[in-house]
Structures are given as C-alpha cells and as structure tokens.
Write a structure and sequence with these properties.
Elements (H helix, E strand, L loop, with lengths): L22 H15 L2 E2 L9 H5 L5 H4 L13 H13 L3 E5 L2 H16 L3 E4 L4 H5 L3 H5 L3 E4 L9 H6 L6 E5 L12 H13 L3 E6 L6 H4 L3 H5 L4 E5 L10 E5 L1 H13 L8 H13 L4 H21 L6 E3 L7 E6 L3 H15 L1 E2 L6 E4 L2 E7 L9 H12 L6
Parallel strand pairs: 1-11, 3-4, 3-5, 5-6, 6-7
Antiparallel strand pairs: 2-8, 7-8, 9-10, 10-13, 12-13
C-alpha cells in the first residue's frame, strides 16, 4: 500500500476520455461513495473529504494564529512562526518548512553528504524513499542508497556495526510504515544510533509519523529527536494538515537546506493555508495522538478476538499490540474478495470497518492498514467484534 502520488480516488484521472471504467475503477468509485455515506469509520482522513469540508478546518485558524497579520511571502511571517514552533517541540536549533517530505529528505541527505564527504545513505529496504519515491535519491540528488536489511523491523545495532561498506548517513524511518508501523524499543534505538556514530556516520530520522511515537518510547518528542542529527516530520500524515513538512536540526544545516529548498523549487510564493492547517493540527491533533495510540491497542485486540470467534481460517493483526495508532491486518483471501466484503458491509450497514484498500501480500493473501483517530475513539471493543463478525459473514466459505 503506497502513499499515493495522488489521493485515493484520483488514480483514474488520466483515463482516456470516453473509455469504459475498469473493474478497479468502478470499485474505487463504490468505495469512495460508501465511505462518504458511512456513519461509522475508525478514521476519516482529510483526503477523503470534500473541498468544503477541508476548508472548514480553517474555521479554527483564529484560535491558533493572529489572522490580522500579513500573509507570508516566500517563507516569512506565518511560515517562520510554524518553523519556530516545530523547532521548539523537537528541541532543535532550527527548522525549515518544505512543501513535501520527499524534497525535505533529499535536501537533508544531500547536505549531510556534502558534510561527511560520502553520498552513501544506509537505510531499510522498506524505507519510504526506497519504495515510494521513484528512486529520487539517485536520480535527482546523486545519492547512493544501500539497504542495511529487508527484515520487517528496524535495523539492529549489530547490522549497523557489521555492514560491509562505509556510509556517511544512516536514515531510520520511525515508525517503519511498510513493515506494519513498527518501532524498536528505546534501548534498541539508542544502540543503533550509537553504532552509527561509532562508524562516524550521522543519523537522520524519517519522522513522517514521529508525532505518534511518544507513547511507545515513553519519551518526549525532543528526547526522541535529540538522538538524531536531523529529523523530518510531516504535517498531514498524523496531524491531518493540507500538506507540508519540516526539516529540523542544527541551525547551520537548516540554513543550508533553505538554499537547496530554493534550488529544488520549494520556495513557494505563499503557503499560509497549508501552514494554518498545520498549526491547527499541532493544536488539536497532536495532544490527542496518545489517546489514539492507546485505543488502537483496544481495537487491535478486539479485531483478533473477533476474527478468532468468526473462525476465519488464518489471520494476523500486526503488531499484535500496535506501536502507534496504525497497524496492519492480514487475511487469507485475494485482495479483491476482501475489498468487496468491506465495501458491501459499508454500503449495507453504514459501518466501514476496513476502509483502506486491501493489497496483495502473496497468493491468496492480502493485507490492509488500520488507523485509529478521533472517530475510532467512539468504538468500543464490542463494537469492533460485532463489525468483524458481520464482515466475516461476507467472506467465501462463511
């Protein structure tokens, strides 16, 4: 399952005019319509809302910023205020706003490459740049990614120490989304960072969802970010902003990054709507994330219990106790079969239990991602088990 280049439901925008929609396109339309009408979901992300609904987010803008101030021009004003707030939250000297995380991380890593003298970036085989960015590191930034491990977990300290070739930067994705939003323990993370430093490498955190990590580690954002030399955070993944990202770290690095941001086309004339949505997210969503994480564990346990009670031939909730408010569910059916069951349930009952797409994980095996946000807090364990029972009845052989 990818962080789509375009939001869910827009994949068919370039279809030939007049062409008949494919089965996949028809399913996307059904899924989008069912989601819009669903009365019960675990999460209602911004990209599945109408323009009017998204603009309503800015109704709270006056609560987080003085709207009588002037709008930004090429990164001043409100953009600088957001940067200062992020730096304070993460405990870094400075932060720079970027229109995308892909740009922010390319800039960060090429800056480190210049400082370390090495273009080699060690990362996980499932890291976002390796899976979802069309080889941007090598094609655009001249960096050389090397894969430390492909195991569905973060790299270990031993793997870092024993890696057979030199690298200038170690990049760690926290959490590792494509392994199931998994995190190491705090002790494991500190050991990995120490192992990289023993090799004279700098450490960069891909913290797109770093905001969600504090309950698992039992540490503050500044303590987590303080382990790394630089950190990237997203404003739309956890905080439901319109978009945007920030790169945080030493002031000299951030100043250099601003120069590269301009060169990469990231010096946008005005960005105040996106920045306002980020400020609203920091005010409203950030304090609630620990509640989402705690309730995700309730939902995950109820899903396991419900699937077992329904006697589904095999299932897995991974991790069994989620590390963040997001996790994966695996079932022994083809993806299209599971999508049909999920959408049919939503259409007929108004409950969309598995609202994300199902992806093929192997022959007769598929997985989906489950995210628990504000809407999910309304679900009790009994609600989840009842929804699982209804979903399971729609599967072949039930």
């Amino acid at each position: 399952m990818t962080d789509a280049v375009v939001p869910d439901g827009h994949e068919d925008d370039d279809r030939r005019a007049g062409a008949e929609p494919t089965a996949a396109e028809r399913m996307r339309e059904r899924r989008r319509a069912a989601f819009a009408k669903a009365e019960r979901v675990l999460w209602r992300p911004g990209f599945r809302r109408t323009v009017r609904e998204r603009l309503a987010v800015l109704d709270a803008a006056s609560e987080v910023y003085d709207l009588d101030g002037y709008a930004d021009v090429y990164g001043d004003g409100i953009v600088e205020d957001l940067e200062q707030r992020v730096a304070a939250l993460l405990g870094t000297e400075a932060a720079a706003f970027f229109p995308t995380g892909t740009m922010a991380q390319q800039v960060a890593l090429r800056c480190w490459a210049g400082r370390t003298g090495s273009p080699t970036v060690a990362l996980h085989a499932l890291a976002h740049p390796e899976v979802h960015e069309r080889h941007a590191f090598s094609q655009v930034s001249g960096l050389r990614p090397v894969r430390v491990t492909g195991e569905p977990r973060l790299p270990t300290a031993a793997e870092i120490r024993d890696f057979p070739e030199p690298f200038g930067t170690l990049m760690l994705e926290l959490p590792l989304r494509d392994a199931g939003f998994v995190l190491p323990t705090w002790e494991e993370l500190t050991e990995v960072v120490e192992a990289a430093r023993e090799r004279d490498a700098v450490v960069h955190f891909d913290g797109a969802r770093l905001w969600e990590c504090t309950p698992h580690f039992g540490r503050s954002l500044s303590e987590i970010a303080g382990l790394a030399d630089s950190v990237y955070v997203s404003f739309y993944k956890s905080l439901d902003g319109f978009g945007g990202a920030a790169l945080a770290g030493p002031r000299t690095l951030v100043e250099e990054a601003r120069t590269w941001r301009h060169r990469y086309g990231g010096a946008v004339y005005q960005q105040f709507p996106t920045v306002l949505s980020a400020l609203v997210g920091l005010e409203r969503e950030l304090p609630r994330l620990p509640d989402y994480v705690r309730h995700a564990r309730v939902v995950a346990a109820a899903l396991r219990e419900g699937l077992a009670a329904a006697e589904v031939p095999w299932s897995r909730v991974h991790p069994e106790e989620p590390h963040t408010n997001e996790f994966r569910v695996w079932l022994p059916y083809d993806a299209d079969v599971l999508m049909e069951a999920a959408v049919s349930q939503a259409e007929e009952t108004g409950t969309f239990l598995f609202a994300d797409a199902w992806d093929r994980g192997g022959p007769g095996l598929a997985f989906t991602e489950v995210s628990v946000r504000a809407q999910g807090l309304e679900w009790t364990a009994d609600d989840v088990r009842a929804a699982v029972a209804d979903f399971a009845r729609r599967l072949p052989g039930a």
